[in-house]
Each structure stands twice: as C-alpha cells, then as structure tokens.
Amino acid sequence: MARGKKIYEGKAKTLFEGPEPGTIIQYFKDDATAFNAVKKDTIDGKGALNNLLSEHIMVGLGNIGLPTHFIRRLNMREQLIHQVEIVPLEIIVRNVAAGSFSKMFNIEEGTPLPRPIVEFCLKDDDLGDPLVSEEHILAMNWASSHEIDDMREIALRVNDFLAGLMFGIGIKLVDFKIEVGRQYEEGMQRLILADEISPDSCRLWDMETNQKLDKDVFRRDLGSLTDAYSEVARRLGILPKNTAASGPKLVE
Q1: Domain containing 103: what range?
Q2: What is the pLDDT of residues 16-63, one digit of tens each?
C-alpha cells in the first residue's frame, strides 16, 4: 500500500497519510531511545517486533470490546490505523514498584503495590513528561473531567487484559503506559486507545527469575533488546519457538 506524505515523526514511529480519509499508516522504526532520547541506538528488527506485538495486543483488546485505533497490519513494519486527535497525556498503570516510582517514593523495586495505581503525565519531552494531577489537567484544558474518567477506565481495562495475557505466558506485568485519542465520527466524539502497546511501553518481568523482557534491557545495558522482545513474541505464539534470537527477517 502506497504511503501518503509524512505527517509526523517520533522517537519510535513515523506517521504517513493513509489511503482513505481518516486513516493513517503507522511505521515502526528500529530506533531505540531512553531517558528522553539522551541515550539512542538503532536495534535491527525492533520495529518489526513491536509492530507484531502491538497488533496482537490491540486485536485482543478489540475482541473484548475496547475500541482502538488499529485497523490492520499492512506488512512487517506498518499498520493502518484510524486518525485521532491525541490527548496530550500519557496514562501509566503501575502494579509493581519500579523505575521512577521506586525512586520517587523510596520503595524497593519489585515491591507489589496494594492496588493498580493510575498516573497521568504531560506528553512533553522537553519537560521530561512530568507527572500531573487531575487539577492540572482540568485547569490547562488538556481533558475534561468526563474524559479523565474514561481514560482511567480504559487504562484499568487494558491492565486487566494485559496482566492476564502475560500471566498466562509466565510474565509479570509490572507497569505500562498508553495514549488515547479523540475519534470524531458523524458529529460524535469518543476516546479510543491509540499509539502502541509493546515492550517499548511496558515493563515485563519473567515471573520466576525477574529477568527484564522490556526496554529496561536497553536502558540498563542488560543484553540484547531483540532477544528480550523475541522471547515475549515467542511465548505469545507470534514467532515460532525456534526463531533465531535476532528476530524476524524483514522484507522491505
């Protein structure tokens, strides 16, 4: 499928005009970044793995009735998605203390939390994606009170689904972040899940060993990122169990 003109390029994905009004082609890059792009590298096969993993999760969420921007995967690196107006917030759900949460509250990493904690952060790399309160969101008109409730509900539904999916393959869902967008159809507006869900946006630990199977492998120099992502894909049945650790072979 021919791409239209480029309309946005982020750290991990590039967006192009889609073939029909209201559609976008989302291209997954091999770029890896951490610490707001202070650390950068190119990891061969990462984009293809994230494309496959995000497709699998988005389809599963759609099957339980949670609306997403995903339409279909086009090839190893591209998806066709609905065009949405992205809400300028990241919604984080934490099940286990890790990363910045552990540092902020001086809680040992790996400590289970008494309940899932939902956080909102402003999407702004220059500011370091700061944690914001509902008062900030309402005062700055980033979202309405009704949308805040909807975002929290979407995040917790994703958490229930994703935690169960990962538990079934021996992986602990530590935390994850999502983005949502406003979809406009026939004069109506609703919030739907957007962006991606992949090991780039989740913390995933092996349940027996606590081995990291997410972007912390890159952040902390713990080994091969494609090995970690391929392991998640193999456990989910997306890649054959005998697939080489270097990930899927790509045909551009």
Answers
A1: 85-206
A2: 999 999 999 999 999 998 877 678 999 999 999 999 999 999 999 999
Amino acid letter, 224: S
Write down the mean pLDDT value for the chain.
Answer: 93
Q: What is the CA radius of gyration of the chain?
A: 18
- Domain shared by 27 and 51, yes or no: yes
Let me know whether 109 and 163 are in one domain.
yes
Helix axes 225-235, 46-63, angle to 10 degrees: 30
Using DSSP's 3-state secondary structure scheme, residue 84 falls into coil
Backbone dihedral angles phi then psi of residue 224, each to the nearest 5 degrees? -85, 125
Tell me: do 78 and 167 sit in the same domain.
Answer: no
Q: Count of CB atoms within 10 A of residue 164's CB?
A: 11
The secondary structure of 70-86 as a DSSP string is EEEE-SSSEEEEE--EE
Which tens digits make up the pLDDT trace of 94-136?
Answer: 999 999 999 999 999 999 999 999 999 999 989 999 999 999 9
**Are residues 98 and 202 both part of a single domain?**
yes
Query: Is the pTM for the entire model greater than 0.85?
Result: yes
**How many CB atoms are located within 10 Å of the residue 39 CB?**
12
**H or E segment and range at residue 102:** helix 99-105
Query: Each residue of 176-198: pLDDT tens digit?
Result: 999 999 999 878 899 999 999 99
Output DSSP code: residue 212.
B
**Residue 103 phi, psi (nearest 5):** -70, -45
Residue 139 lies in a domain: yes
Whichever domain contains 107, its CATH number is 3.30.470.20
